[in-house]
Design a protein that fits this description.
mainly alpha; 8 helices; globular
């Protein structure tokens, strides 16, 4: 990969992966509600599916999705419904004590959110349409950009979770934690509605 190709990729993908979206907003909420460490299984699930999406899209799933656009059209509403489910888990978790485990983030929840995250699927398609070079070996390019994307999204999700955890430590009290559950749950509902519009 040339230096100019790397800067094209990084300049395009860094702001997109660090911007607020379903996974990042959810991770800020998870980090804030449960702490950074307890959010790690969820983060692992989100980022594993990013890597799998990138590899599949890079190696030809894009042609499959183009051939069956109705399938892709189902991903966004399914993702929005899954965010509604996570939002209600947050709202439910705000009703228990500050140290309760209701709604604790799990690997599977992160995996499902990533699987149904139309933003990542779309951005991965855009990424490959801009950076793949037909003159070079496709295998190395797809693997390199897929791993790079997974590392970038891992950095983004870790940052958002750490930010949510830091904010909670600064404002920690049972009342604030309860309010935070309502605020973050409402934010997730808002993102779900935005995805459906």
């Amino acid at each position: 990969m040339s230096v100019s190709k790397f800067f094209l990729w990084f300049g395009m993908m860094f702001p997109l992966m660090f911007s607020p979206g379903p996974a990042n907003v959810t991770l800020a909420a998870m980090g804030g509600r449960f702490g950074f460490r307890k959010s790690l299984p969820f983060i692992a699930g989100v980022n594993l599916i990013v890597l799998l999406h990138a590899l599949l899209i890079g190696f030809g799933a894009l042609q499959f999705l183009e051939a069956y656009p109705a399938l892709f059209a189902l991903i966004q509403p399914a993702g929005a419904l899954y965010l509604v489910y996570l939002a209600f888990r947050f709202l439910k978790s705000s009703k228990i004590g500050a140290n309760g485990n209701t709604g604790l983030p799990r690997f599977w929840d992160g995996f499902m959110l990533g699987l149904l995250n139309a933003k990542v699927v779309t951005l991965t398609m855009v990424m490959f349409s801009q950076v793949l070079d037909n003159e070079s070996g496709k295998l190395l390019q797809v693997v390199t950009f897929s791993i790079g994307l997974a590392l970038l999204t891992t950095g983004a999700t870790l940052t958002w979770a750490a930010g949510g955890a830091w904010l909670t430590r600064k404002l920690a009290s049972p009342k604030v934690l309860k309010l935070q559950g309502y605020v973050f749950g409402s934010m997730l509902l808002g993102v779900a509605v935005w995805m459906l519009i």
